[in-house]
Amino acid sequence: MREDFLHYLWKYKKFDFTNAETTQGEKVLLIDSGTHNFNSGPDFFNARLKIGEQVWAGNVELHTKASDWYFHQHEKDKNYDNVILHVVWEDDVEVRRHNKTSIPSLSLKNLVDRDLITGYQKLFAFSQSWINCEKSFKYIDYFTLRHWQERLYLERLEEKSILIQDLLLKSENNWEAVLFQMLAKNFGLNLNGDAFLSMAQSLDFSVVQKAAQHSLQIEALLFGQCGLLDRQFNIPYFNQLKKEYAYLSHKYKLTNSGVIRPKYFRLRPDNFPNIRLSQLASLYFKHKNLFSELVASKSLKAIYSILDIGTSSFWNSHYTFPKKHKERKKVLSDAFKDLVLINTIIPLRFCYSRAIGNDEVEELLSLIEQIPAENNKIVQNFKKLREGCVETSLQSQAMVQLKKIYCEANKCLDCAIGVKLLQGKA
After folding, report:
1. Residue 249 in contact with residue 192, Cβ under 8 Å?
2. Helix (H, G, I), strand (E, B), or coil: what is residue 100?
3. Percent of the chain with pLDDT over 90
4. Which InterPro entries match (predicted)?
């Protein structure tokens, strides 16, 4: 028996509460099960119960065995002094608060329908499966799945907001600076995201704005801060960049000692740091008020238009400084633009609209639903389980959230799909 199952039973009143009695023999009348607490402290806050003839208001703690109370040392924690009921599966010992007073216990072991227990056990029977409910996933009704995907996506936005809020705090609420830092991380992709972010954080954004007045200067600034100009090449363009960076470095007293050096290993040439940095530089050279433009853009087409940028001309025929190839423009692909929208623009607009008190959630949901689903292993596996379940980026982001946060942690009883299956309503 798992503790999360007890949480489910208590939260949704899935036990015979008409016959509920404490192990001391007093009748328990459940008025309000309370608010589920997912942080430290008692499991449910502000419950209301009638135990015997006395009505109580307070907190409820749940454990598989009553003795877990002492295993977790709650008897030493004053935060548990206002627990009014200890709900357990097995009542193997009397428990007391920090102040030595006894806490009534309610055992659910003989109050739960056997079919419900069997359904719960089936949910976790396939421990070797990719997800616990993979044999039943295709039977979940469309409304439940679609509504849960939307909630999962909003959860994912909230998680992405954590980094944005941290960057805002460090930049004294400079939204333009945070956009630059988030874009830099996005342009670095998985391998160089942290390196590009460290470069962006090493610069005062006012320096970026000034350098962006000239295409050569902004490129020199980004390349130099990433440490890509510390070699010697007999190449005019390289030497121009190096000269500009030396000028900027002296003028603005720049240092890149804490910047992570970008990597090239196992990258496709189009994702080389040189290419992505040049594209990022071109974006800021072309759009002097980038944040305002992106916030004001109401359509996917308008945002794609802003992201219609490439590299400086040198990189049309190079992937690295010394090696030349047949000329080819290296513009942002549609797939890369979608990544920028998913990982930077929409999360930033989500945070900004909330900060200024303008509810933009429906508009952002409309944008993300116009973007095709990402193609990764998680998405591919869900598509194998159920045809048509992942068609938009909202859905692909939602399913990544589902797999990583719920499925991998066996949090089926916190998942709308798991709860539906347990109720036998798929």
Report:
1. no
2. coil
3. 85
4. DUF2851
d(CA 222, CA 229): 10
Reading the block at residue 290, the tokens are 């980038």
- Tell me the CA distances in angstroms from 160 to 116, 157, 296, 340, 358, one per residue in order: 36, 5, 21, 13, 19
- Nearest partner of 385 among 155, 124, 145, 156, judged by Cα: 145
| Rounded Cα gap, residues 15 and 113, in angstroms | 7
Give which of 151, 37, 212, 195 is closest to 416, Cα–Cα: 151
The Cα–Cα gap between 271 and 330 comes to 10
Give the DSSP per-residue string, 287-323.
-TTHHHHHHH--SHHHHHHHT-----GGGGSBSSSS-
Tokens at 400, concatenated: 């990544």
Q: At residue 318, what are phi and psi to the nearest 5 degrees?
A: -145, 150
pLDDT in tens, 317-370: 999 999 999 999 999 999 999 999 999 999 999 999 999 999 899 999 999 999
Q: How far is Cα of residue 79 from the mean position of the Cα atoms in its chain?
A: 30
Sequence letter at residue 270? D
The DSSP element (H or E) to which 59 belongs, if any, is: strand 54-65
CB-based contact 205:171 (threshold 8 Å):
yes
CA distances from 366 to 347, 363, 399 (A): 14, 5, 18
* Token digits of residue 321: 């400084």
CB 82 within 8 A of CB 57: no
Mean model confidence pLDDT for the chain: 94
